[in-house]
Specification:
alpha/beta, 15 helices, globular
């Protein structure tokens, strides 16, 4: 039985590994272009922002990476994969941030970034700060492009420099932690995330740090860390359940990684109840039902898995990952035509999504199988 569980948990993790490879291949084979989009309503780029973008873009251009600004369609939502958001709340300040540009990390539990920011207030006498932010942004661009060694060389020296933009320094710890995860140096990654999470007080860092504790053989500390985070966020449940839900899902993922599927499902059940009671967005609920479906998949209860994916799709018909995951289920139970339809729907909704290459591969395999069966 343990062998079967190990086989399915490895399948569960394989998706994350493939996503990492797809992300790197995308960055290195498809022209290495980074698109910069305004995050809020403005379509005009302030002069200082333009100067900063140009300076960072020039540096990465030497490595064959193009940074392109497109203000034709400003976003009022989370930016899509392979983009860097650019937020202009006023004429006197702007913020660059990276938000889930692509899942480059090697496990479904891990988070790629948590709104990485780089503040810069126009100041003619602040040459050192301008250079600091330019270098930080250059490192972020390289990270997004999959040039991890180069990003590390650029970012590490910033930790020793003085700057008035402390938040930018904080984000350097986050990116360096993720880079070391990708390079399988879990102890160094843990050191960076301890500073980011404990000393700089960013709760989201507990997700990656708990995962790292698990990889380093510290299962008890991994759960203790997430449990402390949940206790801290419980007091905010009535006013804002968002971070508590994220922590609860993180613990569910952690339980799944340690083969405790019962507690994993219990945590997701609780998360769904809280989300429904707090009138969370349909997309949030769809994500939770999809996550529960993924975990129930590991105990082979196919009807329950399908019910969860169906509910996710009913709640948010445009939520592409639910179609991909349901396609995996249908393929597993030999419902090839249904699987093909879901993979095709996923590609219609997210042609450049993180599962796009896998969905295409599944469709090709299904077509060959159906032809061989004479269908």
């Amino acid at each position: 039985m343990l062998q079967n569980h190990s086989r399915w948990i490895m399948r569960f993790l394989l998706i994350g590994v493939v996503m990492m490879l797809i992300s790197v291949a995308h960055a290195q084979e498809e022209e290495n272009e980074i698109l910069v989009i305004p995050f809020t309503g403005t379509t005009e780029i302030p002069f200082e922002a333009d100067r900063l973008l140009s300076a960072a873009a020039q540096r990465v251009a030497e490595m064959g990476i193009e940074v392109r600004y497109d203000a034709t369609e400003p976003l009022f939502r989370v930016v899509a994969e392979d983009t860097i958001g650019l937020w202009f709340p006023s004429d006197s300040m702007f913020t660059f941030f990276i938000d889930q540009l692509a899942i480059t990390l090697s496990d479904p539990m891990l988070r790629d970034s948590f709104a990485v920011t780089a503040f810069y207030y126009p100041c003619p006498t602040c040459a050192d700060d301008f250079d600091f932010i330019t270098q930080a942004l250059t490192g972020y661009f390289l990270y997004v492009a999959g040039e991890y060694d180069a990003a590390e060389i650029i970012l590490e020296p910033l930790l020793e420099r003085e700057t008035s933009y402390e938040r930018s320094v904080h984000d350097v710890y986050l990116i360096l932690g993720n880079i070391n995860i990708l390079q399988n140096d879990y102890q160094t990654a843990s050191d960076y995330f301890r500073i980011f999470t404990d000393e700089l007080d960013y709760g989201y860092g507990n997700i990656n740090l708990a995962w790292l504790e698990l990889q380093l053989g510290n299962e008890e500390e991994a759960f203790a860390r997430v449990n402390r985070w949940l206790e801290e966020e419980e007091i905010n449940l009535e006013t804002d359940a968002g971070e508590y839900l994220i922590a609860l899902v993180a613990r569910a993922r952690l339980y799944a990684l340690t083969f405790d599927y019962s507690n994993a499902i219990t945590d997701i059940d609780t998360a769904i109840e809280i989300a429904e009671a707090s009138d969370s967005r349909d997309t949030t609920l769809a994500e939770l039902y999809t996550t529960r479906g993924e975990i129930v998949f590991l105990i082979y209860e196919w009807d329950r898995v399908e019910d969860n994916f169906n509910t996710a799709i009913e709640l948010a018909p445009a939520y592409a990952p639910a179609y991909f995951q349901r396609g995996i289920l249908f393929y597993t139970v030999a419902r090839r035509e249904d699987a093909q339809a879901d993979f095709e729907t996923y590609l219609e909704l997210a042609p450049d999504g993180i599962y796009a290459e896998q969905a295409t591969s599944y469709i090709e395999s299904i077509e060959i199988e159906l032809e061989a069966l004479g269908n």
